[in-house]
């Protein structure tokens, strides 16, 4: 399974991730959402380099321009809520893609233990398509695993790109065991060492859904 950490090379991407993490800057929820969206745009561009391209002759007003353009039938999917601005960033660049949405939330049994509940899925047929599953945070990796399983009820994609922003080492190891090795690529912008008792990423950024859209009851 290919794992790509785009944060390993210096680019403006790392400034956007730093702003997401910064305890003062992240209080500006408009900027927080826009930074997630901007990272989605950058990541869509990077992932697009892996698509299949063929040459097409494009008619301009003055002649024919040979252009390599992608042929993949792409479905961008996201996991509610924190995935919403990320999804929008991907869709800005991959505007011809189809779209899928899955809900996942942690239902706590007590202070430390929780199950993840999937209650909603809206997706086109996925068979033989290129599926991009977007979610800014991979903490335990369970939301991603369960969202992927739910999406499989809509058909088996030809290739899966898991696109996240901050992942824990534990989540990457977990998904390497749970996702199909020969057709999954995981893209991240930062890799953090550990989780706390509540399965939050340390240092991470806190609760991405709450920072983007406000606290839940
Ligand atoms: O890898 P995991 O341990 O499953 O955690 C990661 C999940 O947590 C966040 O969503 P959350 O459940 O907080 O929902 P929200 O976006 O509605 O806040 C995040 O967007 C992921 O979906
Ligand atoms: O660190 C974490 C873990 C789960 N969800 C988040 O938003 N952040
Ligand atoms: Mg949350």
Structural commentary:
With 217 residues, the protein is an alpha/beta fold. The chain has one domain (2-51, 70-213): 3-Layer(aba) Sandwich (Rossmann fold), CATH 3.40.50. 31% of the residues lie in helices and 31% in strands. It contains six helices and 16 strands. It has helices at 13-21, 29-48, 83-93, 142-152, 169-178, 208-213; strands at 2-5, 53-59, 64-70, 74-80, 98-103, 105-108, 114-117, 121-122, 130-134, 137-138, 159-163, 166-168, 184-188, 190-192, 194-195, 201-202. A seven-stranded mixed sheet has the order 1-13-11-9-4-5-8, sandwiched between helices. The relative contact order is 0.18. Uracil binds at residues 82, 137, 139, 200-201, 204, 207-209. Residues 11-214 form the Phosphoribosyltransferase domain. Its EC number is 2.4.2.9. Keywords: Glycosyltransferase, Transferase. InterPro entries: PRTase-like, PRTase_dom. GO terms for molecular function: uracil phosphoribosyltransferase activity.
